[in-house]
Amino acid sequence: MDIVILGAGEVGRHSAEVLGSAGHNITLVDRNRAKLALVEDEMDIRILRGSGLDAQTMREAGVDNADLFLGVTHLDETNMLSAAIAKGMGCGKVIARVHHSRYFEGQGFDYARQLGIDHMVCPDHTTATTIAQGLRSPGALAVERFAGGRIEIQELAVDDSAALIGHSLSEARLPTSTRLAAISREGESFIPDARTVIQAGDVVTLIGDSEHFQKARGLFQPSPPSRFRVIIMGGTALGVWLCRALHHHRFTVKLFEEDMRRCRQLAEKLEWVTILHADATGQTILEEEHIEQVDAFVALTDDDERNILASARAKSMGVRHAISVLQRPTYLHLIEHVGIDRAYSPRITAVTEIQNLIDVSPVRKLASLAAGIADVYQVRVHDQSPMLDKPLKMIKFPVHCMVAAIQRGERTFVPNAEDSFEGGDTLILIGPSGMHRPLRKLFGIRE
Predict the structure, then answer these.
(1) At what angle are helices 10-21 and 33-42 packed, to 10 degrees?
(2) How far apart are CA 324 and CA 397, in angstroms?
(3) What CATH homologous superfamily does 2-121 map to?
(4) Are 9 and 72 in contact (CB under 8 A)?
(5) What confidence tens digit (pLDDT) does each residue in 41-61 have?
(6) Which of 59, 106, 56, 103 has the alpha carbon at shortest distance from 78?
(7) Residue 80: helix, strand or coil by DSSP?
(8) Residue 422 and residue 420: Cα distance in Å, rounded?
(9) Per-residue pLDDT for 82 more than 90?
(10) DSSP label at 360?
(11) What DSSP string describes 296-309?
(12) How far apart are CA 87 and CA 82, in angstroms?
């Protein structure tokens, strides 16, 4: 593919590196001479100095014949307008990176549709959603989210008091929007069937609709969760997204921000959050907040060094979970050595999203649930598939293979036995490892 990238910041450079190494032809555009010089020394790609809002620069970059344009500068408006210009010049697909909810969610106005932008990506939103999901499910052994966060997959240890112990799956009556995909028992993993009996100590892999997931989880972990205390350092756009993702009665959230003007803005936006005008790295502030009683400390300022130091200090003072957000990859390898539990990179998140959007493979493996036992697959259903309009109960799927979710346009749902596929659907399936060929055959996908 011929790809034009506007913006030589962290996201732009990483996108160029990843997509260039995959064999694509990359042209990187930026107005900053120093940033381009840095890239030129590190990568074998074409660079061009200029503005994405200038038609002549865009023509010189080759957007009129490009397969893909990425607008990934730090300015939302520049990214959206340059993507619209690229589309108008004839670029095949255009993607714009944005930070603010008014653009990403299209509150009262669909910016993407009106400007002809194929996809908006918001790494801050995706990163915040991932962090929040991990905090919402602290007892989960692993968490994955698919279909834009509307489908969840979790590994849960079955509590000794679970009502399902001693009952087979046919008796379990899980909510219709959930599926039990795999079980690990005494170190061995397997895909269950209707006769499988749930035992104390099992670790079950549950998949389902995010909206109703907690109800299903309660069948395996019935103890009601206690209120979860979270301290956030940094009133960035990512901080706002995280507060919104944690807007639930289970959470008590405090956000520290040093800029008084920003504090006032946040207080108007986030009525359910306690906004404190203070430096969370101060000598006594964490002691005053009894950090040892706090469940999670999340540092997400724009300063990586401060995030690492603050998270490490909070962890040393007794916080249960210390989380740091890093914009650059420089320090990722240090995280486990300084006691921080998790680190998240919006830059890596952005490139992963972009890769997923441009990957047109009809069958893809998304994740592994139990190594060598069960995997998560994505299947794109084409308009001539022999599986169209057949109720799921009439389709003979490969053994131990189940449809976990159907993504149809903007809607994502967990299907029942009466549902059927339509051309253009994207499916999420759970099945044994090595299912690429059987799935291609089932859906009439040519090799």
Answers:
(1) 30
(2) 43
(3) NAD(P)-binding Rossmann-like Domain (3.40.50.720)
(4) yes
(5) 889 899 999 999 999 999 999
(6) 103
(7) helix
(8) 7
(9) yes
(10) -
(11) EEEE-SS-HHHHHH
(12) 9
Q: Give the helix/strand (H/E) hosting 277.
A: strand 274-277
Residues 6+ apart with CB under 8 A from 119: 93, 94, 95, 96, 112, 357
Cα–Cα distance, 389 to 104 (Å, whole number): 33
Of 161, 194, 197, 201, residue with least CA distance to 179: 194
What is the C-alpha to C-alpha distance for residues 291 and 295, in angstroms, rounded to an integer?
8
The CA-based angle 221-225-230, given to 5 degrees, is 135
Q: Are 334 and 266 in contact (CB under 8 A)?
A: no
* Interatomic CA distance for residues 148 and 127, integer angstroms: 11
Alpha helices in 105-258 (DSSP H): 111-115, 123-136, 169-172, 213-220, 237-245
CATH 3.40.50.620 fits 360-442, yes or no: no
Which tokens belong to 100?
A: 């603010």
CATH number for the region 228-351 comes to: 3.40.50.720
Residue type, position 105, single letter: E
State the Cα–Cα distance between residues 125 and 159, nearest whole angstrom: 32
φ, ψ for residue 11, nearest 5 deg: -70, -45
Q: pLDDT, tens digit, for every residue of 345-385? A: 888 888 888 888 887 789 988 877 766 678 888 899 999 99
Task: Give the other-Cβ count within 10 Å of 269's Cβ.
Answer: 14
* pLDDT at residue 142 greater than cutoff 60: no
CB atoms within 10 A of CB 58: 26
Ordered by start, the domain boundaries in the chain are 2-121, 126-220, 228-351, 360-442
Q: Virtual CA dihedral for 152, 154, 160, 164, nearest 10 degrees?
A: 50
- Helical ranges in 97-236 per DSSP H: 101-104, 111-115, 123-136, 169-172, 213-220
CA distance 325 to 303: 9
